[in-house]
Design a protein that fits this description.
Elements: E1 12-16, H1 19-22, H2 45-50, H3 72-86, E2 90-94, H4 97-100, H5 111-126, E3 130-136, H6 142-146, H7 155-170, E4 177-181, H8 192-195, H9 206-230, E5 235-241, E6 245-247, H10 252-275, H11 282-288, H12 300-308, E7 313-317, E8 322-324, E9 333-334, E10 341-342, E11 348-349, E12 355-356, H13 358-372, E13 376-380, H14 398-417, E14 421-424, E15 447-449, E16 461-463, H15 465-475
Parallel strand pairs: 1-2, 1-14, 2-3, 3-4, 4-5, 5-7, 6-8, 7-13, 13-14
Antiparallel strand pairs: 9-10, 11-12, 15-16
Helix pairs in contact: 3-5, 7-9, 9-12, 13-14
Length: 482
């Protein structure tokens, strides 16, 4: 078995979650509705949301698993204790915007909501677990969508700034690591999650996607500025979904298509947030989507703000790689994290069809390192699978261990290649509601939660086999992966 010994001292081993997928308590403590609260559960979730009839209203014919999550709101002390037992050095989570500002446009925050995060952060620090907080993770207040049209409206920059300033100020001495928006680039194909846009409020017009991105870039730069002014030691990163992308073959047409695919999916949002300016290919990128630069509302003051406040590090999710082919018809396709591609015959896939490619993670780390020369933080990676517990609720998840082992080996190899990798937080370190399907049956965690897709169960927590394995990985700083 390969033994790695090159992970730097202080490497941030941990796990990752999102408020809307585990907290539950969707109307407790003064919390308002978020966009996640109106997304129905089940395998048809994405098709329902993509329908022109979707209107952000609750419908009794659907289930809404986010309303319950795994009831982390009432179990967080138990959950953090389990994370501490695994030896977490950090824990990546998000602050639900609508728990702090129920409608999103209030001037003053909901103190009861903040007190929940006071307690959560203090519980982490009690065990010397470094909080890593995503400010906005697919859970913007619903009111900002229905009343303001979401991120196409520049007023949201001010609302986000108020939210960011509130939490950055409150936790300035307790939280060092922050990220502005989760998977901001996912709006390329599915803008509901990060931008609050669907067909009924403008998602069909690409101009709106780019305008929303620009407004988010400006809002993110304001958060970086605020954080650095409050505490110069704060590290504030961006966060993207990264899918290493291969050309199907050496046909120059496919090579060009792959380059252009990388521009929009992997690099555009990062180029702006890391380099502080729009890349040279911006005009051609917009043109491919039928958008002109003159269609976008921006000004010199905003561009100066971007230039003066680049992010400190790059956080990213990595689950699978993609294949681009524009020269053949009727190619077999593969699913993925909000986007897919042509099936790669050299790779196996998960239960949900996501192609498993550890080498792609090594490539991703090299590509990002070479392009940006910034610290990299893998803040999501993991295997969604159907876990079958025995009569004692024990899950023998060697398949998950194998997946994680191979990806950690790839990280080690990328560090040898010269990549500056600061941490690794596997996704869904405790079972939670899937963002793509709203299911509990798609499980990622080291900890099994007794709950089904309808929200029924005891909500008791049980350690899987991967729990003790990951504990050993952390204890040895990645040296022992057996």
């Amino acid at each position: 078995m390969m033994k790695t010994n090159n992970f730097p001292k202080g490497f941030l081993w941990g796990g990752a979650t999102a408020a809307n997928q585990l907290e539950g308590a969707y109307q407790e403590g003064g919390k308002g509705l978020s966009i996640a609260d109106v997304l129905p559960g089940g395998k048809e979730r994405m098709n329902i949301i993509a329908s022109p009839d979707f209107d952000f209203k609750l419908d009794p014919k659907y289930t809404y698993p986010n309303h319950v999550g795994i009831d982390h709101y009432h179990h967080f002390k138990e959950d953090i204790k389990l994370f501490a037992e695994m030896g977490f050095k950090c824990y990546r989570f998000s602050i639900a915007w609508s728990r702090v500002f129920p409608n999103g446009d209030e001037e003053q925050p909901n103190e009861e909501g903040l007190k929940f995060y006071d307690a959560l952060i203090d519980e982490c620090l009690k065990y010397d677990i470094e909080p890593v907080i995503t400010i906005s993770h697919y859970e913007m207040p619903l009111h900002l969508v229905t009343e303001y049209g979401s991120w196409t409206n520049k007023k949201l920059i001010g609302f986000y700034e108020n939210f960011a300033r509130t939490v950055l100020t409150r936790y300035k001495d307790k939280v060092k690591y922050w990220m502005t928006f989760n998977e901001i680039n996912s709006a390329t194909h599915f803008p509901i999650m990060s931008q609050g846009l669907v067909l009924s409020n403008g998602a069909g017009d690409k101009k709106n996607i780019y305008q929303a991105w620009h407004n988010q870039f400006v809002a993110g730069a304001k958060a970086v500025k605020i954080g650095h002014e409050i505490n110069p030691d704060m590290q504030i990163g961006c966060m993207i979904a990264y899918g290493t992308t291969y050309s199907y073959d050496s046909d120059p047409k496919n090579q060009l298509a792959t380059l252009q695919d990388n521009q929009v999916n992997n690099f555009f949002c990062t180029d702006v947030q890391v380099r502080g300016h729009y890349p040279a290919y911006t005009k051609s990128l917009l043109a491919r989507d039928g958008v002109k630069l003159s269609d976008i509302d921006y000004n010199d003051e905003e561009l100066d703000l971007l230039a003066e406040n680049p992010v400190d590090y790059i956080g990213f999710s990595y689950y699978m790689s993609l294949v681009v082919d524009v020269t053949h018809e009727n190619q077999e396709t593969a699913a993925g994290n909000l986007l897919g591609g042509v099936k790669n015959p050299f790779l196996k896939a998960s239960d949900w069809g996501w192609q498993i490619d550890p080498t792609g993670l090594r490539i991703a780390l090299n590509e990002l390192s070479d392009r940006y020369e910034k610290p990299l933080f893998i803040v999501e990676n993991g295997l969604g699978a159907i876990d079958k517990p025995d009569e004692n609720h024990y899950v023998d998840d060697d398949y998950r261990i194998d997946y994680l082992r191979e990806h950690i080996e790839a990280i080690s190899e990328a560090i040898d290649d010269g990549a500056d990798v600061m941490g690794y937080t596997p996704w869904g370190c405790i079972d939670l509601v899937s963002a793509s399907t709203g299911e509990m049956s798609k499980r990622y965690g080291f900890i099994y939660v007794d709950e089904d897709d309808e929200g029924n169960g005891t909500f008791d927590r049980y350690k899987k086999r991967s729990f003790d394995w990951y504990k050993k990985v952390i204890e040895t700083n990645g040296a022992d992966l057996a």
